[in-house]
Amino acid sequence: MHLDIGDQASRRPLVLGLGCERGTPCDEVILLAEQALATAGVDRRMLTGIASLDSRVAEPAMIAAAAHFSVPFLVFDAGTLEAQSPRLQNPSEIVFALTGCHGVAEAAALAATGKSGALIVPKIKSAHATAAIASGVFSESSQDVVPGLWQNDSASSHLESGRVMGVASGAAP
């Protein structure tokens, strides 16, 4: 699938879900993220956010990836990610045993893009990290948005129901 920057799709949320082991080198995560974008055939400027598990909110590699792409970093608790399990293409019992959810990269990308979100790049792996990309359709419906915690201007800022536009604008709601 190739999306051109001029496509209507460029107005849709395009979220990179990331997972990693603690202490994963920043370069490894960024390289994997670039690989996921290349696999999707999308320009890095189309990326609207990075999402992960809340236990990675202060992980240097995650923060570096968000800074590298100049996008906000959104995190979700394990229960929210586990709710995405029926939509995952690569659920993992090992990941569940470690985190309490059957997937991090795919689930975070899907949670951030809402009910209309779909994986355009299922989970890919490096030695210590995972990445996936989901795209969604903007919706004003509060039933389409999963609340999450932004690591951007303020770690206490929360994505509110119906405010999915914050993902695309790069501004914490």
Write the layout of secondary structure elements.
Layout lengths: L13 E7 L5 H15 L8 E5 L6 H10 L3 E4 L1 H5 L10 H7 L5 H9 L4 E8 L3 E7 L13 E3 L13 H5 L4
Parallel strand pairs: 1-2, 2-3
Antiparallel strand pairs: 1-5, 3-6, 4-5
Helix pairs in contact: 1-2
What does this structure look like?
With 173 residues, this protein is of the alpha/beta class. The chain has a single domain, classed as Nucleotidyltransferase, domain 5, CATH 3.30.420. Helices cover 29% and strands 20% of the residues. It is built from six helices and six strands; from the N terminus they run E-H-E-H-E-H-H-H-E-E-E-H. The protein has a six-stranded mixed sheet with strand order 4-5-1-2-3-6, sandwiched between helices. Helix 1 (26-40) crosses helix 2. It starts with 13 loop residues before the first strand and ends with a helix. The model is unreliable at 1-10, 138-145 and 151-173 (pLDDT under 50).
